[in-house]
């Protein structure tokens, strides 16, 4: 490797530049760290650019020089001041607002449309694969852009910790729009055959069986590829082919048959440790890194836990009439505090909405938050973590003896 030039070293250690605001002939002083400990290098450059003083001084000497320059009218030039604004910096946001529709959600409602989370969505073809509506489901503000992306036929990847609501968001949109859904989990035995299709012998005849992808594409179903960060490379290669809207699937195994997507077909993926969630990969062992070219073909949404208020509302709606608003607030606060402890790395496991709902359900049956926390929380985490969660619970709930 080349040694850095003297100028580069000088620039790296630059502490300040002093110039005269009115006297252009005064030139410029610069102060930088010297390579000798506790010593500073001061240099003066004439307005012509010529460097004629370049010397090393100690701190006392530097301070007296700084006072002298100040007396002479030199001022510190803000080296970290933003550079001159690019010409259109100020008008960009105004121009953007002028081109952004402000009333997308208020388009006239046609017969085959349902309002989901405030967004008009076309109804699907119904059928046995439509997920059941969860009456307690709350379309939080985080859903809106995902809904518009579904309308625009974008490929959508939802990333986030386990149990934040990735799968249920897609399923509940489908449930409210009578749209059939297929799910395929990549963290298991899903093979390319399951995904794409395979030949088999039935009644003495060799027949082709479509996998989940061509089935969804032909029948206009929504396909959720769960835990896509665990998918084997051959499946990722197949997926990539259909990531462009209108992308066709080539069934090589079936004599290069081409499967064109039905207009209602949509493709979703969920993952725990992809992209901005990569910092948590150690929690999701075995998850693969997804390359940028693959990620760039999706809209990737980070689905975080519901806010404390939204989670309290979900609790109230889920256990309607069985828990008071105050109880719901308390439980949501416990979950939120456990998550804060997780972010601080005081807790090794996150506290999912799924865990909170399950704990609450068992608590309502047993009448005892501590007993209910056994199978729903404590048994799933280390003794140390359980002790911390217990202390958070006890901070919020005065448990009976
Ligand atoms: N907005 C919401 N309203 C009501 N319930 C919700 C909401 N979001 C999540 N839940 C509930 O939280 C639980 C977990 O949600 P979900 O299965 O969608 O999580 P996930 O992010 O897909 O988890 P994983 O990564 O483990 O697959 C479900 O029981 C779901 O109903
Ligand atoms: Mg899921």
UniProtKB/TrEMBL annotation:
InterPro entries: AAA+_ATPase (IPR003593), ATPase_dyneun-rel_AAA (IPR011704), CbbQ_C (IPR013615), P-loop_NTPase (IPR027417). Signal peptide: none annotated. Residues 152-304 form the AAA+ ATPase domain. Keywords: ATP-binding, Nucleotide-binding. It comes from Paraburkholderia sabiae. Belongs to the CbbQ/NirQ/NorQ/GpvN family. This is AAA family ATPase. It holds the Pfam family CbbQ_C.
